[in-house]
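Dear Dr. H.,

I hope your travels went smoothly. While you were away I took the liberty of generating a structure for the chain from your last submission, since the lab meeting agenda had it listed for discussion. I wanted you to have the full record in hand beforehand rather than looking at slides cold. The sequence, exactly as received, is reproduced here:
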Amino acid sequence: MQWRVLMPMVVLATGLVLGAGGCRKAESGPVVLHVYAPCGMEMPFMELETLFEQAHPGVDVNLLLDNAHILTERVLDNGERPDVIASPGGHELARLTEAGLLKTADIHPFSQLDLCLFVPRANRAAVTSMDDLAKDDVKVLAVADPDKTSIGHFTVQALQKAGLWERVKGKVVITGDASQTYKHVAGEKADASFAYRSCPLKTAPDKLEYSKVRVIQSVPGELYGPAYATVAIVGSTSHRDLADAFVQLVLSDAGKQIMAKYDLPCLAEPAKGPEKETKP
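The corresponding predicted structure, in token form, is as follows:
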């Protein structure tokens, strides 16, 4: 089967990059802690940045926000070395673990993400559940790249376990990431797609107009994952204590309150870090 592949739009750093994360020039003045985080979690990580700097005078958190798979590629392909990196779903960080850049013990899940099916607000294809994706009225199903993104990986996994993949794969258009699938659905270029309920649908309001889509169904948990949002300390950090303190802030009660504010459910108990996954 040959997928129709839509090349993802190049997202300019303007508005996404706070500082020049990854640049390792000689630092004078404040100690700089480089944190890479998915742009779909923009709002909570900006609050964490402010809270951390207030608690650590003389430390400047240099927050770089971009799609999680792009952040991973910047580390793998461009040789950039942040101190801390976060990811939705854990799939992206598995590549860094395989490359020896992260240790499993330094990867910390902090939220379990809810995969959901969503459609354009008008819902002209009358989708009421995953089963409806096999109907003739559904012409296009947008799916984030399953090889590079956790949302795409778990989408394909859920469709396979539900016995729907063979019936819908001819309708699939592969987009670069969750933001692109959202834009296809919001613009009615696709009849449906999948996203995490909180990321990016509710945590990046400046990029996504949530009112243009509607969530139809939470995907049953036994069909995928589990999908954990994770934060990790990069092994090459020269600011290990600060990196650990930032991770502990994410995992703290204060961090949990920030995540809960943006509907990112906190884990009742610590979860294991992401293991090496088998591609669907």
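Two observations you may find useful: The chain has eight helices and eleven strands. The two ends are 14 Å apart (CA to CA).

With kind regards,
E. W.
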